[in-house]
Structure formats: C-alpha cells, structure tokens
Design goal:
Elements (H helix, E strand, L loop, with lengths): L2 E7 L9 H8 E7 L3 E5 L2 H4 E6 L3 H9 L6 E5 L4 E5 L7 E5 L5 E7 L22 E3 L2 E3 L4 E3 L4 E3 L24
Antiparallel strand pairs: 1-2, 2-8, 3-7, 4-6, 5-6, 5-8, 9-10, 11-12
Length: 177
C-alpha cells in the first residue's frame, strides 16, 4: 500500500511563553492511505472517539488533530463520515479495503521531538497536542504510556506490554508476562 505523507500546520493564534514548545507541540505529520481503504479496529467500543459528518478529509484531519487522543481517522468522501480513533494501527486494528472507493485512512505520525518537553514544567506543554500538565510537569495524556521516546496509545487485550502502564487500566486490563 502506498502512503501519501503530508505535514499539517494548524493555525494557532495562541500566546505562549515558550515558542519552541508551541511550534513542535502543534505540528502534525500525517500519512494518508490510498483511496478505497478504511480502518477496522479490533475493539471499536474501546477506541472509537467519534463518528461525525464533515465536508472534507482536511476537516476530518483537523478534527482529529484537535483531539489529544486521536491517532487514526478514516474519511469516506461518499457519505462524508469521519471516524476518529485513539489507537495504534499496528496493534489495535487493520487498514483494509473499503466498500467505498472514496474512503481513506489517515495516521498521525508521532516523532520524539513532540515529546521532548516531557517532565519539564507545565509552561512547556501548556498548548501542546502531545503532552498534558499533570502534577506540575508535562506528562503523557491519560490512556497513553511513554516508551522512552514517544507517548503511545495504551494496549488492548492481546497487545504486547512490558509494564502495567502499557495497558488500558480504565478497562481493567493488566500486563501479563
């Protein structure tokens, strides 16, 4: 499958103390699948954030980008359906052929620089899409875990894990050896 890679810059008229954290904190690198594909999650109830109607794939991508949990979206140009998911495409679903020739999957690509302010004071992640302020420091958002480089979506049943933090504890999942 071929992927189209784009860099999405969301216009933010936000005032921030640290311009560096704002610029990398809102950059979004997207991969778009070929037409005729959609995302098939392993557990739709656990990872579907929303299913809305929008006018274009660009609006769907922007909507995903503004939701801190969204990592995958699919858009169907025939029905204007935009589905947003919090997940990892490799472990929590598959990208499969769709019955619609106008559907496409988008993946938000995570890079380590987006998480470089982890553990710093909250002023460094005040407007970040990727980190949130917890106990006065920048941390991974809930339902994610830090692997030393980036914050990944926590795993569902059957996902590989090393620590308890790797699993969706809100669903009472634990990491087994």
């Amino acid at each position: 499958m071929r992927w189209l890679y784009i860099l999405l810059f969301i216009e933010c008229n936000l005032v921030t103390v640290h311009a560096q954290s704002n610029s990398i904190g809102w950059q979004c690198f997207l991969s778009l699948s070929d037409l005729g594909m959609n995302f098939s999650p392993t557990d739709v109830q656990a990872i579907l954030l929303s299913d809305i109607n929008v006018d274009s794939i660009e609006v769907c991508a922007e909507t995903c980008h503004t939701n801190i949990f969204c990592r995958i979206f699919d858009f169907d140009g025939q029905s204007n359906s935009c589905r947003l998911f919090e997940s990892n495409a490799q472990t929590m679903g598959s990208i499969i052929a769709s019955s619609s020739t106008l559907s496409r999957v988008g993946l938000i690509e995570l890079i380590s620089q987006q998480f470089s302010n982890k553990e710093r004071s909250c002023s460094y992640c005040e407007y970040s899409r990727y980190l949130t302020c917890i106990n006065s420091t920048c941390q991974c958002p809930s339902r994610t875990y830090f692997d030393g480089s980036i914050c990944h979506s926590q795993n569902l049943i059957g996902g590989q894990c090393i620590n308890e933090t790797d699993c969706r504890t809100d669903l009472n999942l634990i990491c087994l050896p």
